[in-house]
Specification:
Shape: globular
CATH class of the largest domain: Mainly Alpha
CATH architecture of the largest domain: Orthogonal Bundle
Oligomer: single chain
Number of domains: 2
Helix content: 55-70%
Distance between the termini: 47 Å
Order of helices and strands: HHHHHHHHHHHH
Radius of gyration: 21 Å
Structural class: mainly alpha
CATH superfamily of the largest domain: Tetracycline Repressor, domain 2
Length: 244
């Protein structure tokens, strides 16, 4: 292999300037969301904050939907980074599964960034739909992969397939068989059931806190969340048979 084959192409000056401008636009849009909420996102306001025209902004994001897609993908990536960092930085403690640390990283990010959390799990625009197979899909698959890895660590596909959960209907089983192997399609139906149930439990508690429905717990919300997540992991693992 020649040296030319192993050398990464250096971005041109124009490409570097475009990358910088794109990040500035995303940063301004995120600040606008934090101050006014996702539903109030305006290309005109973002352009005005940056001292540029809307027409100039269209060179980077041809539509409001393109900007929203980029913002959602970036928020997912930042959330996934926070979750992975929580797992990597966790102290080894047999009483606290790694999945619990991942869930706590998820919760902390959501509580610290409620507007961006609402952007990715709410309805940013009434008629917005993320492009199939686009950057938001890739970001979601990364997030799902972290929780899948930590929840089912050490479990074989055969163990997950034999988990104690209700069997899916033929229609649901056929649908699950069509899922992408890069996501939930890598799991047997019983594994999908366990992962989605665990995700719904965790995400539901976070949503309640982010939107102020658990303030009656005062400063004990983190403790209640950890206990709940430990119980969740224990219940999931009770349903998975031991390896032969």
């Amino acid at each position: 292999m020649s040296p030319a084959d192993t050398t990464t192409a250096v971005p041109t000056l124009r490409q570097r300037r475009r990358a910088v401008a794109t990040q500035e636009i995303l940063g301004a849009a995120e600040r606008h969301i934090v101050e006014n909420g996702p539903h109030a996102l305006s290309l005109r306001a973002v352009a005005r904050d940056l001292g540029m025209t809307v027409q100039a902004l269209y060179h980077y994001f041809p539509s409001r939907y393109d900007l929203v897609t980029a913002l959602i993908a970036q928020a997912y990536e930042d959330l996934a980074d926070a979750v992975q960092s929580a797992v990597d930085g966790a102290q080894e403690d047999p009483s606290v599964p790694r999945l619990v640390h991942a869930a706590e990283g998820y919760r902390r990010w959501a509580v610290a960034h409620p507007e961006r959390f609402q952007l990715i799990y709410g309805s940013p625009l009434r008629d917005y739909a993320a492009p199939p197979g686009g950057p938001t899909t890739v970001a979601v698959q990364r997030m799902s992969g972290i929780f899948q890895r930590e929840l089912f660590a050490g479990c074989s596909p055969e163990q997950l397939a034999a988990a104690d959960v209700p069997a899916p209907s033929p229609e649901l089983g056929a649908h699950l068989g069509q899922l992408s192997p890069n996501g939930l399609g890598a799991l047997p139906p019983a594994g999908v059931h366990l992962l989605l149930s665990a995700w719904g439990h965790m995400h539901g508690l976070v949503v309640l806190e982010v939107f102020g429905h658990t303030t009656f717990l005062g400063g004990h919300q983190a403790e209640v969340f950890r206990v709940s997540m430990c119980q969740l992991v224990a219940d999931v693992h009770r349903r998975i048979p031991a390896a032969r």
